[in-house]
Structure formats: C-alpha cells, structure tokens
Amino acid sequence: MKALFVWLACFVCTTSAFAGNADTVKLKQHLLAITGTAQPRNHQHTDALNQVAAYIRHEFEQLNGQVQEQVYTVAGKEYRNVIFSAGPADAPRLVVGAHYDVCEDQPGADDNASGVAGLLELARLLNTHTLPFRIDFVAYTLEEPPYFRTEHMGSYVHANSLYEQQAKLMGMISLEMIGYFKDEKGTQRYPLAPMKLLYGSRGNYIAVVQRFGNGSFGRSMLRNYKKAATLPVKSLRAPAFVTGVDFSDHLNYWRFGFDALMITDTSFYRNSNYHQPTDTIHTLDFKRMGEVVDAVYTSILKLP
Q1: pLDDT tens-digit readout, 174-190
Q2: Which InterPro entries match (predicted)?
C-alpha cells in the first residue's frame, strides 16, 4: 500500500492545482487510487473494496480527529463504512457522505470515486477549522445494486446507528457524482420533459437535490451554496416519485427522519458513461470538480 501512495504522488506531481481552496492534484490522486484496483470494487470483490477502504482510512488518519470502521456482514462477507469524526463529541453533528463501491464491472470514476475524492478533500480543508459542531465524514459501501434500497446499504447501517443513538443531526450531505460536465446544448436530460424549459439543456451545472419539507438545514445549505459557487447551481425540490431524487445515500437518512440533500452532476441524466466501462477518470473535469468542493466547503463554514 505504501508503494501505491508513492507512485500516485509521482504520477500527479505535474498536474496544476485549481486556484481555489480545493486541490485538484489531490482530487486526481484520490481518483487514481480509488479506480485503480485490480478488480472492480463491487460487492463480489471484497479485496478490492477493502483496498479502497484502507486508502480512505489512511487519508483520514493524516488529519486531527477520530477514525473508525463500521463493519457489518452481508451473505457471509464483511463490508465496512470508513468514518472520520472531528469537532466536539457531544455537539450536534453534520454528516457528509459518499459511497465508494461500484455497480458490476466498471471503474466508476464519476460514480462515485468523484464523490469520495470530494469527501476526502473536504475533510482535509475543514480539518483546519474549529467548528461549533461535529462533522462525520463517511465513506459508505454497498450503495449499488444488488443492495440498493435495502438495509444492507452502508448508509442505511450508518443512519440507523445514529437513530438508535438518538443523535442530534443537523443534516446530511450526499456527494453523488460531482465530476462530469458538458457545455453543449442537448447534453442534459430530465425525468420530466417540461423541466428542460426551467433548467436548460446544457450539462454545465451542479444540482442540489432535496425533497419537499426538508427543513431549515436544506434551506441554509442551498442559500450558502448558491452564494459560494463559481459554477451554475440548480435547485430541485421534488417528491420522491420523481425518478432520481432519492437515488443515493441521502435516502436512508430521510427514512429515519433526518434532513438530507444530494449534491450531484445529475448522474445518468447527463453522464452516458453511467454504470458503463467508459466511466473513467479521463472523462472528468477536475477544475469544475474543485469548484463543487470549494462551494461545499464554504457553505459548511457558514452553517449556523
């Protein structure tokens, strides 16, 4: 594992960093490590999942806080969420999460190595601040089929544990595919045709997705995010029956009555590489990914 870290550092040393808080050199380093397993990091290949979990843990351990693994068993195999916690232990907490597994046999650069890379960079950036609340940065396993929408999702296991602890949760942010952007007309699709008139046909924005009645946390985050973002931001509040609104880990926090939202490049409504072998690192826009992370970072700093 140590040799892998050295190789990655050498590989990305010529990449110029985005001129913001987020470091695109580090984002690319994380993407290379997460997508570089010998086998796809799906539920069948626990060695690949554990390799990525070890990388995530290693990155978290460079920071000031507590790192733990939430290990659970499905069909006789062990799977793990990796959690980094910082801030006062007894304070209200914010959860920021992203899943590191993939669907079937594909590299999953956008889905969802991009979200995990953003998670790691956010942890690094926010670790330099003393905040009045606790933040749990959680890398989830088993978000993808065949366990999607089941109690075996890593985010279900984590949300359930917070519910059982009666934890005071400010809210949850799911980073779900944050690296794919297109400026051309006709590159953005929608679940309902009239939405194109409101949101446009260019896949050049980041979306903040919530359900109706999401509470004050969602309103505060959206307001902060729109002010902080240097790329276009589109807001969607919709009932769960709109396809895609609950297609990530935030779903499980809703199930337990917590406020949660998703920040996304809109997944399969834009990225034709979704769940395909073509979902590679070469399709991603690291500059705009850095801008997405920057806006989340600034938004969290401004939370009450």
Answers
A1: 999 999 999 999 999 99
A2: M28_fam, Peptidase_M28
